[in-house]
Amino acid sequence: MSNKKKVNAFRRSLMQSLTKNVGNSGNSNVGQIDKSKIKKVLICRPNGRLGNMLLITPLVQEVSKSFPGCKIDVFVKGFLAPIVFEEYGNVDKIIPLPKKPFKELIKYFKVWSLIRRQNYDMAINVDQNSSSGRLAVKFSSAKYKFFGNLPEGITLENEDYEHIAKYPVYNFRYFLNQVGIENKNEPVALLDLKLSEKEIANGKNILDVIIDPVKKTIAIFTFATGEKCYSVDWWSEFYTALKKEFPNDNILEILPVENVSQINFEAPTYYSKDVREIGSVLANVDVFVGADSGIMHLASASKAPTLGLFSGTNMKKYEPYGNGSEGLDTNVLTVPDFITAIHKVLNK
Length: 348
Prior knowledge:
The protein is an alpha/beta fold.
């Protein structure tokens, strides 16, 4: 582990230790809620990664559905949230925490001041392990505060509870149930970039220039960060099998921002730094195959059938779902299994 990673790990551990009891006395001001009076909600997920932004879209949809007409502010990090929530009409303000707060102290304190000044009716922390998220909920002047955790001794029995996009919704539903709002026990919403018809049409135009528009398209993403990235040899074996098994279909490689390829750019490629454009292209493919990454979640949020490849990461926590999507454990499964999964999607 590099010195930078060690410092960041120590910082996170220290902050979690200092804030672990924030909100543990219970979710504040729990009592009967008049739904019609919840007009402004703060959702806290101070993380800047693309995947983590997309993974809170089900909760944003849940809050919108629970309180029709409410305005939602999102407390985040980085610059991706405005892109992800561009088509969410009820998302009002994006409140970004500076990436390096100790180097941008003025901006840092302005953020907390802004949160304090807003007249929120409800504040919600997404990740109970987020120190900044818990502090933001505590610091807000919201009447109803949900810190993201269930009361001690309470567990929920949903079989998909471990999923990082789903347990915040289940926890929020439990919280609402305690304040007199019925839990309808509906399936959790899918990740959703909310691409417009115009965006999807533009994605098709882009795709049709690269591949044969008459054929079905298998999109692959051969990159990922750290240990989640499969080797050149691994991808070479898989790509060889793909070409042999699907000779009459398009195989398109979606390139990462680093513009690298684990198959040495042998397949037709698509490259862009525009998140919504990438999503619009993915919305037009027949199946996406790639390791656990922000692009995998982007494919899922673009409603492409998504096959996620998992080795060291927690598949139950991050696997794609909906639209025929599933996670594939590469520690157990082999290339023939991946081919079978692709056939299953294409033949639906």
